[in-house]
Write a structure and sequence with these properties.
This protein is 8% helix and 20% strand. The protein is mainly beta. The mean pLDDT is 88.
């Protein structure tokens, strides 16, 4: 997979009051909660376990929701059905670029 240049990492805004519910778009990140840059995910289920638990280091920063699929959820459902694998320490990574 070819990676594009990115801008500086962004501040984790998981305290924005928006939960990781079906159809929301959230920022992926490293273990450092403020290192999100270019990867995101679309929640295909209600993922309450991804919510902010605390603003203290290593205590549950959560994943910041910054958008919502408003049209085309059928496409998301098709993407959800592709074969996945484990890669670079991550699970459920699409086996081929989507």
């Amino acid at each position: 997979m070819q990676q594009k240049d990115t801008r500086d990492p962004i501040k984790n805004e998981a305290d924005n009051g928006v939960g990781n519910s079906v159809g929301t778009v959230a920022m992926a990140r490293t273990p450092d909660p403020h290192r999100g840059q270019r990867q995101f995910f679309i929640n295909v289920a209600d993922n309450d376990f991804l919510k902010l638990l605390s603003l203290r280091p290593c205590t549950g920063w959560g994943y910041a929701v910054f958008g919502k699929v408003t049209d085309g959820m059928d496409v998301v459902e098709k993407i959800k059905g592709v074969r996945t694998t484990s890669r670079s320490g991550h699970q459920d990574v699409p086996a081929e670029d989507v």
